[in-house]
Fold these 2 entries.
Entry 1:
Amino acid sequence: PAAVIVAIDGPSGTGKSSTSKAVAAQLGLSYLDTGAQYRAITWWMVNNGIDLTDPTAIAAVAGKAEILSGTDPAAPTITVDGTDVAGPIRTGEVTSKVSAVSAVPEVRARITELQRSIAASAAADGVGMVVEGRDIGTTVLPDADLKIFLTASPEARAARRSGELKGADVKATQEALIKRDAADSSRKTSPLAKAGDAVEVDTTDLTLQQVIECVVTLVEEKR
Ligand code: C5P
């Protein structure tokens, strides 16, 4: 199909976002960052003083924030109740709290519905979309035309996330990453997992450019 829908899942630090944006831009597809949506709802909850140790409190306000995602891969945007939160959702505070919020079934149901409607309009418009996340191939879009699961060694993932940092910082980053992935992989409701029909790409020894080329080739085979 021309309006191809591509699901790209995997843990943090595998180059998922960079790859997804570049592939979408190169092939003229729209792009949806589902992690940004979970970060946005987490940001709203932090801002509104919700007790994030209490899943019942989180569930009670799961539908309160209006989250809008801009789907241009060259300039993706995210707003909560009209406020641009692209910067604030990347803070250490939101990053450390997002797994607790995204584990709550009411939050997932609400965000999943949003994601399905965004992907459905991209398909209806004939544009097609790259959707990146943790459960896109398994749960959100089980009928996606192509499913990719990106992996990389914990060392490679931590090194990419920490960039120029050295020694203790890499170690701390690695520990935080491993903790978040463990939480995302072990939650009851649609955990991070590879779909049975996903193509696994181990990016440990690949450059970003090589990963992009690999995924572009796989998408072109589906068009
Ligand atoms: O991709 P990113 O690191 O921005 O995702 C932030 C968090 O959002 C993840 O750690 C996970 O808890 C949650 N998430 C999710 N399902 C998705 C995408 C992200 O639970 N499809």
Note: Residues 116 and 140 are 7 Å apart (CA to CA).
Entry 2:
Amino acid sequence: MTEQEKTIRTTCPYCGVGCGVLATRHPDGTVTVAGDPKHPSNFGRLCSKGSALGETLSLDDRLLYPEIDGERANWNDALDLVARNFQDAIREHGPDSVAFYVSGQILTEDYYVANKLMKGFIGSANIDTNSRLCMASSVAGHRRAFGSDTVPGTYEDLELADLVVLVGSNLAWCHPVLFQRLEAAKAANPALRVVVVDPRKTATCAIADLHLQLKPDTDVALFNGLLAFLAEAFVVNDSYVNRFTQGLEKAVEAAGPCEIGQIAENTGLSRQDIALFYKMFARTEKTVTVYSQGVNQSVVGTDKVNSIVNTHLATGRIGKPGMGPFSVTGQPNAMGGREVGGLANMLAGHMALENAEHRGIVQDFWQSPVVADRPGLKAVELFKAVREGRIKALWIMATSPVDSLPDADGVAEALETCPFVVVSEVTRAADTVPYANVLLPAAAWGEKDGTVTNSERRISRQRAFLELPGEVRPDWWHLSEVARRMGFAGAFSFEGPAAIFREHAALSGYRNEGSRDFDIGAYRDVTNAAFDALEPFQWPQPAGMLPADTRFFAGGGFFTESGKGQFVPVVFKAPRQTERRYPFSLNTGRIRDQWHTMTRTGKTPRLTAHFAEPFAELNPIDAEKLGIDPADLVTVKSSYGAVVVRALLTDRVVPGEVFVPMHWTDQLASKARIDAVMAPETDPHSGQPGSKFTPVAVAKA
Ligand code: SF4
């Protein structure tokens, strides 16, 4: 390495694996990246997206200056205008007439400031996030079972297990480094079995000993049947259940008897495969069940989560090496956002909005004039409120809802009619940008500084290694400056991310004597230099208790009122059906080499080479019936909207189903925003949209 070259330890900005990255800046301005061998989540591994990060740092589409109504403006005028419009709306229509819609892409420090401003100073809980589209069902399921949003295990558990069940998770494409770890563990341990539960034959099936290709949204039937099987075969861990849990009988009663024939009919699986899976699960003590968006993105997502968690509570396989239910998050900081209360139904520090004592703790700590005392609007209902004129001022940060929310055309119409829209963004290539009255240029990966939390509760530093270009500023600064102009200068006088992290850590430990799961009080006095040097660590780390136990619930200690883990009775309901006009079931998701709306991954040819254009996976049997040949253009249409994409004929999907990736925007390809086709139906507990099922019609374009 030459003298001018400098290597910085940072974290990948893409998926929830949260890999450590070494970014080296060279004298010619180029940046190369490598996996950080010292990071305990990836040990030097990277996937295709992470290893291409250095090729995605160009400024060609960047927003470099604030804009008001499409014209360049100075920061003072832009921030004054934002503060004035929010204040006017609050004065005339009350605090619930304004809202923030933020993102799992922003850092924990940005999230903390946004949440503090909205819930503690504006006095509304109208702050929701695109994590609602990603994780909300797991959050709701965790809170029902554990009394807190706690992931009990750690990545190492996948390597220590003898059975890994992957439910609704294409780990190979969506969490590739975790998949690499599992692949290596399977090679090293021939006894390790992998079961994939997924309606689609994904790349993850390459390492599956058993693929359960069930009908969409029938997971509850499969896991209720498993719970009944465990009860009937006396595999229940009575000692764990009696000491540490409540409600097994009611959950077993709700599950009904283990009638394999009925389960086969409900799920579309063969009796043999169901029986084989149940026996494997029953006989394997070291079992981890990993679940992701196929579970969460469903109108019965929370019930799916609890049907899985019930089976682990019943066997006592939770929080022990190689055992547990394990939710893997989609985004780089979905967990960090949850830690600071970045959802419309949560408070900071994993405290509960509906709990008066928790509200008192937060308000006292913040010394704030008010604290929101009822849940705000969740993502889909928030944009419905915008459309109905109930939201007068909206601030969107680091996400493009006109691309990513269901009924995306309806979201675009909502933004058109909203009296005042602020967008904090990195790029002009987001379809939401044209709807902004005020555009605020935000710092991107490589320029930002702060922390993120990955799926195993590991907090890592994202460090800056590039100067802020133009007049770009980080999101926490945008928010603090507006807060200051709204009259809250004292509470928002942060000098930088270290100061915000200290406050966040202090709040997590405030009046928390083990009564809440999230506690990083050990870091409440961290100096700026120590924050700069912060090594990745897993929470909890309460003050005076280093290092922490990295697993939860092996010996009870749940965060429910009774201190016991709760079985949740879950009743299987037959999934929604397709219709005569719309006979196909639409499934959406990620592809291996792209991230969200491709504003970064789309910049490098080696990533776009994987799939150069949007497509619809169709079974050849359906294609023949519809007269569709390979690579034909096809229309995929619902009652909400339509896309025109290339047909990809494959047996990865079964007849009657169609899969379309979520990444393409209007700026990338005409008529390829699949979220414009998706129905805005949500889970009643979590508010998460069912992004894996919309009835659609498919025809040659
Ligand atoms: Fe980044 Fe996820 Fe790939 Fe790791 S697995 S390099 S976090 S995209």
Note: The chain has a mean pLDDT of 95.
